[in-house]
Amino acid sequence: MMDIYLEDLAELLHSSDVTVTDRMKAYVKDATLYKRSDFFRDDLLYIADGTSDFASLTVPPPANICFVSENGKQGDIPDSGLQECNIIWAAAQKTEPLLNRIKEILFQEYRRLNKAVALFKDVYDSDDIHEILKVGYKLIGNPMFVRDSYFKIWGFTENVHIDDLTWEHITEKGYQEFRDYKHFLSYGLLERLHKMKKAIYFDTHKVIPENRVEEYKYHVAERAHDPSNFMHINRIWTDISSGDTSVGHVVVLEAFKKFTHTDIQIMRLIADALLIVIRKNLQEQKTNQNMGQLFISELLERKLESPEIIRDRLKFLHWSFSGPMQLAVVSAVGKVLTQSEIIFTRNWFSNLFREVSVTQYEDFIIVIFNPRLKSNRFSEVRERFDGFLEEQELMLGISREFLTLPEMKTAYDQAFIAIRSGLKEDENRRVFFYNDYVLPHIFSTLKANLDLKKICRPEILMLIEYDENNNTRYVEFLKNYLKYVHSPVNLSKALGVHRNTLYYRINKIEELTGVSLSDAKVLFEMYLTFEVLKYLENR
Q: 60: cis peptide before it, omega within 30°?
């Protein structure tokens, strides 16, 4: 027979009156009728009549007693040393039928666990996490997911929809938010789970009194109450451990069927099956990650420039770069990323983009991706992107496209230049493209040896002064004209004026400046002048 927790048995008996005073002894393998004895086993449940048998109870009495009463309600029994006992009150006329009922419950749970063991023998050699989760779902009847110790999602029960925010993030976005990780970390739940080496049952409705918390640590599925009502569906967490190292967790949600004690033992089987697969994947990932970081470091430090060696190293890493590439640098806002934040963010980017390489360099995360793939276009993921960066207090600098890996150092510098230049214009922005800051980069390079105002068109400086003295807005008009030079219709819409008015102002500016606005060279130098003045103003 198998162990079953006394409170779980009480639920299966539909008994509401149960008192557990010693949780370390609250597990029973079998049941028997009470008979006076000098020795009682702690793993047996003794069935006793609530009236006739009680008078003959010895001291000390059995550890686990089930009293029979007509209504299943606690009777008026005098204090006879039962303060240390675990007691269930069950509705029955006689003790023998109740004993048979309890034995049938224990037998059914035993058969269910044996079925689970048989099923998992077939998947222990599987490399497919989803296949293991399918078996778990079949046995427990509730959806589950598995993640590593940094909340990267390895898999979940597919085609299941439940009203739970965490489940929605996992199934729709493919990741669990970092705030979840920080939340559980702040309450010590992750450390507690790993130290216990057991399952934790999160009861979202039952608050554990502070003076009874110690009692709960002996429960195989240690009952825990989430202090901030963060979760809304009961769930069981099981640690996936290899020796003293936690590699992840498997979590099942009580969405469709009420949990039983057997579910806890089945979750242990699931965790053991998953450990084999995850350990193999983690070893491969760790090897590739260390090699990947070294490879990226050598490229960024220009220690690796030979195309032949680069191609060879890519084969070892199983990396494939096809078509143009872009490089993104992920940096924290006003702080240094912690190691857990780096790992979580790296995993998030890996889940977001296809055919992407995400690695760490110094205190930053480097993302290399093909921008021509539809799934990697920022327009496709921008909403999720911006929300994630703001939530995690991160910012992103993105380089221009490049074609060969030796160009990566230039792309890396461009990404940082984009962040530095962009923050000077708008410190609240999160994403900065180098393409938007090419000219400011050129100007910052030139300013050490050149007075930038001397490369400005003097006609623009004169027009600025004319506007100030005459309360006109020809400079603003000219900026819009340069923007919409090939579309008078859009220019007219942008300024909200009739086309005839446009031609009047164009002629007036040509009259004031003495240059033609149809000369492409003049227009380029005017645009360059405005960019120089914008750059100087922001500095």
A: yes
